[in-house]
Amino acid sequence: MRELQDTFGRKFPYIRLSITDVCNFRCSYCLPQGYKKNPRDIRSFMSADEISRLVKALSELGVKKIRLTGGEPTVRKDFFDILKDVKQNSNIPKVTMTTNGYQLKKIAKQLYEVGLDGINISIDSLNRETFKNLTGHDRLLDILEGIKTLQGLNFKNIKVNAVLLKGINDTEKDFEAFANFIENNKIDFRFIELMETGDNLEFFKKNHVPAKIFKDYLEKNKWVYQTNGRDAGPAINYINPEFKGKFGLIAPYSKDFCKTCNRLRITARGDLRLCLFGNTGTSIRHLLQNDDQKEELVDLVISQLRLKKASHQLELGDTGITPNLSSTGG
Ligand code: SAM
Ligand code: SF4
């Protein structure tokens, strides 16, 4: 079988597939003014048929995992048609999603029934007021109930992500609150270090905290570093026998972060992005128009990989063409 490999020997079995840029939340680091259509980009989002063709081609390239993301993927009216198709009509073994969880309570059963293999839910604070201030929505309790519903269905692979933010969730007390949350919950909780994007420089300057402070907390509190398995992705995980859940850390500014890169991104408008913070995006949309184009599409994706660079330049403030993560698929 053909597979996706770059000139540095890295393999790419994992695709983050954005299906919309639209989001109903207003997270301060991502879309502080809420979603606004970019008047310069008149292209529509990929249709369910285009996504279906794309995913079938990717499965022929050895892709083992696809994560549906956005924007908020569940705002799409045809979200379940897309999910069902990716899950049932392609040979991708693992189909997961990232969501802000705002309608989790309502859709948990359907997600379980479709056979979703994992879910990442973003919760930056377990304090209701802080959550509301950060996202513009008083939905924390609903989201937590949604998680309970999933657990009641015995849904296995639940991860919660929070962006580490100065003065918002970066104190020992905040870390304890998350620790209490995973003590009896079999949930992987991960902090993501805040990344600078094209639109968030002021917020970044004010709120960025190095991931090390959480690492120090973990090491001080007897959490033990768990070695990563193959294709494990960028999170470093920590375990503690007294807790059902795990802690993790995604530190994009760390020295060797890009060495283990195993993912490519495809935007909702059908651009292949080799790096979240790269300067190029190649449209593959014209090759998603009919089933006969599959070979051409596969060739294009393989040839693009030769252009993938060793590392991003984020530490130099080069955010590439990413204005915010909702537009690229975080
Ligand atoms: N709307 C969904 C959600 O929030 O989970 C999916 C898309 S969102 C862009 C994906 C993830 O990116 C979320 O966990 C979010 O917190 C994270 N994110 C967004 N902007 C970020 C930034 N500037 N730095 C670090 N993480 C960011
Ligand atoms: Fe929406 Fe996710 Fe961005 Fe928050 S992080 S504004 S939920 S896309």
List keywords for this structure.
binds S-adenosylmethionine, binds iron/sulfur cluster, twelve-stranded mixed β-sheet
Topology readout:
Elements: E1 14-18, H1 48-59, E2 65-69, H2 79-89, E3 94-99, H3 104-114, E4 118-122, H4 128-135, H5 140-152, E5 158-164, H6 172-183, E6 188-193, H7 201-207, H8 212-220, E7 224-226, E8 236-239, E9 246-250, E10 263-266, E11 271-273, E12 282-283, H9 294-305
Parallel strand pairs: 1-2, 1-10, 2-3, 3-4, 4-5, 5-6, 6-9
Antiparallel strand pairs: 7-8, 8-9, 10-11, 11-12
Helix pairs in contact: 1-2, 1-9, 3-5
The structure holds S-adenosylmethionine and iron/sulfur cluster.
Rg to the nearest angstrom? 19 Å
End-to-end Cα distance: 29 Å
> How would a crystallographer describe the biggest sheet?
12 strands, mixed
Bound molecules: S-adenosylmethionine, iron/sulfur cluster
Query: DSSP helix count?
Result: 9
| Structural class determined from secondary elements | alpha/beta
- CATH level 4 superfamily: Aldolase class I
In short:
By secondary structure, this protein is α/β, with parallel strands linked by helices. The protein contains 9 helices and 12 strands.
Care to describe what's here?
The chain is of the alpha/beta class and 330 residues long. The protein has one domain (14-327): TIM Barrel (Alpha-Beta Barrel). The protein is 29% helix and 17% strand. The protein has 9 helices and 12 strands. It has helices at residues 48-59, 79-89, 104-114, 128-135, 140-152, 172-183, 201-207, 212-220, 294-305, and strands at residues 14-18, 65-69, 94-99, 118-122, 158-164, 188-193, 224-226, 236-239, 246-250, 263-266, 271-273, 282-283. It has a 12-stranded mixed β-sheet, covered by helices on one side. Helix 1 runs parallel beside helix 2 (79-89) and helix 3 runs parallel beside helix 5 (140-152). The protein is globular and about 55 Å long. The two termini are 29 Å apart. The model has no long low-confidence stretch (mean pLDDT 90). Bound molecules: S-adenosylmethionine and iron/sulfur cluster. S-adenosylmethionine (SAM) binds at residues 23, 29-30, 69-70, 72, 98-100, 122, 161, 163, 192, 194-195, 197, 200, 325-326, 330.
